[in-house]
Amino acid sequence: MTGQLGRPRLHFRLTDSTNARARELALAGAVHGTIVTAAEQSAGRGRHGRGWTAPPGRSLLLSVVVRGLGLGDALLPLAVPVAVAEACDAFGLRSAIKWPNDVWVGEHKLAGILLEGRPQEGWAVIGIGLNVGTAAEDFPDELRGVATSLFSETGVDPGVEPVLAEVLARLEQQLAKGAQDVLEAWRSRDRLLGRVVRWDGGEGTAAGIDASGALLVDTASGRVALDAGEVHLLPRLS
User: Fold this and answer.
1) What's the helix, strand, coil split of the chain in %, to 5?
2) Does this model's pTM top 0.85?
3) Residue (of 112, 116, 114, 111) closest to 25 by Cα position
């Protein structure tokens, strides 16, 4: 993958989903590095079909078209959250990654990532939603106590545009790295390591990720590898 990320840029004051707009552009032949941003989304999407809620102008709502994908880019789903976590840390945090690609600070979710595309055609759309200036009281009731923002964590709102620039710079760096570097960087931020997790069909202790990015879990009947799906982190015992 070559070319600078962030050009051209299409920005909306309001759109349904930046990923939907970016997919349209990709299908129409948009070049590598094209981005779509929005101040507000009416139908933002997260993983597993969930919605993504963000107060207008207080979150980074970003989708990036990447092209030239090959077998060497199989770890793209890991490289992206590493880049986002590094960008967040540039504003005074120490963030972690909840498998496979949510960015957390402590026990609170800071950013979500959604990858879509057509690998057989060598392109993907990277969707990133990152809470920047959202105050605790601005989150809907169902997210209070779960979600957080750069402002909530540091007391400073750095602004969406500086965060966008940092995310794009870090993403460009990660996309240029080899698989081993990506794996090591991801593992250094593994929020689930050593914690008890549950998923549809089992429960066990998270034991890191393998070379493909699958989550390893030690269960009563042995070690299993999860390459898809959703896992829930169980509370620590007091």
Assistant:
1) 30, 30, 40
2) yes
3) 116
